[in-house]
């Protein structure tokens, strides 16, 4: 596609140059003292008709081309006209979208085939193909594409350790281009693909986020992304039949692991740091993580005070998964409370109630329940994405509304429900129930965390 467009531009330039040359000749022929052919001008009506058609076409063209054959003037005009909207904008958008789809397919396919786990030890593309039962002719291209995105390292077989370090080409995983790549990179790539001595190994990027054994593995997150892509592939069907209906329990039971993986990659650490900078945890003895899902926040908070007892409140299918994380991190002072916080009591006598991206985190009807459950002087900490950022992202809002829970109506913007209010309005309502906001901070990921103290 791009080659066709480039050649078209070159052709237009050549036509334009030719037109300018023809104009110069025409100018010389019609200068004072030069009489045009009497036959052409007076005795040849066919020539006159063609000339009129040509002039009509020329008057409507924007590319400065002189028409020599005026027959079928309307078709000629259509041929030489360009669209008013710049074509480059359209093709760049389509090309970048397809490029993203290709890169996603590379990673998703590599995970499905077990490429990263297999390349935890170095293998040639041919040996990898044999091990995974794949086409040996395609596998070198597949590996090289993953290498170009920074997910695989490549070196020559038979090198010692120092040579391997020097040979491994570090890549930029964001731009998908090799740092310091030469102008003849495409030729080098062809040679490398056909080089039977090339050996591939998981890069630091894929070893960190794509190996199951890594503490920062994002395999559950990527599995959820695959399900999301499959839903978007059914977009015409959903637009006709309405949103997918999802059961709360199984959904949250699955999504808990995805959210836990995300939290481990910086979100958890940043949040704990900000909270401890604004709250004296020596005074916190009883804590509730409402809608806490994986419970990692409660687990982390419990490590800050040996006298702190923490509870994670969530739906029964979710708390079953919460127990897994509690046991994994040996958090003996963290327990779970099963229930639906819209319907059930959440407990009482808490010194701190924490809420992070809670689906009900902008529903006003929960505020009195939260205020009542806090001790006097207790603190409510809530973290949500500001609504102005949700409303400015139509794709996110559409994605959010492609599915829903049975009997639940969602809000128009992302991560909101029908009975939700804008986050700023929600925060403004806290004072009506004796919760005084004393700090609000914007986080690195664009979310906002708000601290409020119970004063009555």
From TrEMBL:
Basic and acidic residues: compositionally biased ranges: 19-29, 49-58, 178-192
Record organism: Methanosarcina barkeri 3
Gene Ontology MF terms: O-methyltransferase activity; protein dimerization activity
GO BP annotations, alphabetical order: methylation
Record carries keyword GTP-binding: no
Cited InterPro entries: COMT-like, COMT_C, COMT_dimerisation, SAM-dependent_MTases_sf, WH-like_DNA-bd_sf
Name the UniProt record assigns to this protein: O-methyltransferase
All residue ranges annotated as the O-methyltransferase C-terminal domain in the record: 272-378
Transmembrane segments: none
